[in-house]
Design a protein that fits this description.
245 residues; alpha+beta; three-stranded antiparallel β-sheet; 8 helices; globular
Length: 245
């Protein structure tokens, strides 16, 4: 008997439940061995639910072994082969705005990073990231490592409520800057993406995480003291780094 998983949505104001159901159906048509099979959905229920098959494997966690990293890259690049009929947009820039639209930290390295992020908007990165990429793919949008299941041979994917049209460099940037992948710093080098666009997008997502980690941010209390300072230093490093092929 096939084991089933019922996903109960805690929030659905952005239509997360509808997106999950639509993406599961679309992805399973093209990659039936890589994603759960959608079974049923109660989209009008409160809370809404989506029922799917349970995939084999256990959630990844860092640091990744070489075999796990290679399998993760293979799974993500396979996802990029799925047809994406929706138009791309530059909505990711709004996530960088979350830092500089918020209150400036009073002092220290977080204030320094805030000022550097503010200056970033006058540079070339926002122009580049507002320009449609040469290749638009269907991106996962939520690269928390626990969303990737490792069975000892391959990685499979779950959680598609944030799947959207994207570009490969942006998807690698989201993965590289997610807090869950910090123990695998060489992971971005395994992807073949535009290095200039990748660095620009990594800066953007580093800004997003700094805002979340500042006092009062939604991730501030979930991480050890000093995490915001570490993130500020990471952002400052990215802002002065040079893209390499």
């Amino acid at each position: 008997m096939t084991e089933l998983f019922i996903k109960v949505f805690q929030a659905w104001d952005r239509g997360e439940h509808i997106r999950e159901w639509d993406m599961l159906q679309h992805l399973h048509r093209h990659l039936p061995d890589l994603v759960p099979r959608p079974v049923s959905a109660s989209l009008d229920a409160v809370p809404p639910t989506v029922t799917m098959t349970v995939l084999p494997g256990t959630p990844l966690s860092g640091p990744l072994s070489p075999a796990q990293a290679d399998a993760l890259v293979a799974a993500i690049t396979r996802l990029w082969t799925v047809p994406c009929d929706e138009p791309w947009n530059d909505g990711d820039l709004a996530f960088a705005r979350r830092l500089t639209d918020g209150q400036r930290p009073s002092a220290g390295v977080t204030a320094e990073a805030y000022d550097a992020a503010l200056a970033w908007w006058d540079g070339p990165d926002p122009v580049l990231l507002s320009t449609e990429p040469s290749r638009v793919v269907l991106g996962h949008g939520d690269p928390y490592l626990a969303n990737y299941l490792w069975d000892g041979t391959i990685v499979r994917l779950v959680d598609f409520e944030d799947a959207r049209p994207s570009d490969p460099a942006a998807e690698v940037a989201i993965l590289a800057e997610h807090l869950s992948t910090r123990d695998s710093p060489t992971l971005p080098t395994l992807f073949d993406v535009d290095p200039v666009r990748l660095l620009a997008a990594r800066r953007l997502w580093a800004m997003f995480w700094l805002r979340r980690l500042l006092p009062g941010g939604p991730s501030a209390d979930r991480n050890p003291p000093g995490t915001a300072d570490l993130q500020a230093r990471r952002l400052l490093h990215l802002l002065t780094a040079t893209a390499t092929a």
